[in-house]
């Protein structure tokens, strides 16, 4: 079995709450007592200093020290020494480009998949944990060398998944239609639509939906299905091609 431990959160802030407020208990139980310091990767936002301050304040309030990778003179070494990694939200294209630019893709994969250090992602940080960023909602404001991401799980996630609003007159594609268009391409993996307030906990070969809302699962060539918190999604961790 894989030693990987992931907490993949749909969104950093839930309406009516503060930064990571809705999932702070999940974070504490995920990181536990052994982790003392978290390595934060703020590459998805332009103002990395301000972002690191926000994250540091939150994690210190939960009892963890936080080091931001942008303050390190050697990002690769920072990943090699890290006890846990947290990648925050923002623009997914900007984030992935910076991970490639700093030669961090293979380093993070090794630390998480081989060494078993905890990985937390929120929004864009959840997107890059998957096979690719093909199903992000973000605009391609910069051009990463590839859309292939960290591949910590063998499927894709659509954070902030939105259901169609039947009262609205907007005639653009719904999120569901866009994911269906993605699945019209050959060999595309499953996509898990995580609504606001939802997260996926992965421990080795077990994956469980957590949080307060639900998720919508899209498999290529099949009708999408609805899932409540507590759902066992471990089957998604097997080779995704076998599911299609």
UniProtKB/TrEMBL annotation:
Q: Which domain of life is it from?
A: Eukaryota
A single GO BP term for this record reads: proteolysis
Catalysed reaction(s) here are:
Dipeptidase E catalyzes the hydrolysis of dipeptides Asp-|-Xaa. It does not act on peptides with N-terminal Glu, Asn or Gln, nor does it cleave isoaspartyl peptides
A GO CC annotation given for this chain: cytoplasm
Q: What is its EC number?
A: 3.4.13.21
Q: Which UniProt keywords apply?
A: Cytoplasm, Dipeptidase, Hydrolase, Protease, Serine protease
Q: Which Pfam families match?
A: Peptidase_S51 (PF03575)
Q: Which residues cross the membrane?
A: none
Question: Where does the UniProt annotation locate this protein?
Answer: Cytoplasm
One example GO MF annotation: dipeptidase activity
Give the enzyme's main class according to its UniProt record, as a single word: hydrolase
Report the function annotation for this chain: Hydrolyzes dipeptides containing N-terminal aspartate residues.
Q: Which family does it belong to?
A: Belongs to the peptidase S51 family.
Q: What is this protein called?
A: dipeptidase E
Q: What is the species listed in this Swiss-Prot or TrEMBL entry?
A: Dasyornis broadbenti
